Amino acid sequence: MTPKAEDKTSSNQKEPKEEAVEIEYITEKKRRYTQQHDQEKQLKNKLKKKESEIKLLKKEITKLKDEYLRQLAEQENLRKRMEREKSEYYDYALSELLKELLVVLDNFERALEAQDESDGKSFREGIQMIYKQLCDLLLKQGVTPIEVKEKKFDPYFHQAFATEESEEVKEPQISEELQRGYKLRDRLLRPSLVKVIVPKKGK
Questions:
Q1: Domain shared by 125 and 79, yes or no
Q2: CB 164 within 8 A of CB 195
Q3: Cα distance between residue 23 and residue 16, in whole Å
């Protein structure tokens, strides 16, 4: 074998150490590739799972939104129905009151028509009867007159139309009731219009 052939053969052959390093490099590269592939696979599985969860959540959100809108519509319908029923009840209650007032009005008309044919006493008795009928009707509806007790002035129930100073009183007192006040059950419907005597200033 010539020297050149020997040199060529020796150059094509690798040292065991170099071959081991190359094998180790290839093995490590393969290991990293496999590890990376496994990680990618795990990430894809996680992503697929998350996409499935997101899809379920979107479906649940849509369902909850539909339920909310349906309940909102039901509440609005309930509110409208209650307002309608309230209005109808008010109209019904008012119509019943108005029908009873019409009876009083009928009696007034009859009394006025018979005024010329009756004496003054009969006409007065008729008016008094109608007045009592109207008072009974108001009482039935819970309307009661405010009584002036011991002439004591109460600003909640009485409205002073005029005042007069006097040295004979130590606190405001009612001297005259000009217009009667009324309560609707326990609430003030209209205050009494009164004249009031007040203590004289500087007394």
A1: yes
A2: yes
A3: 10
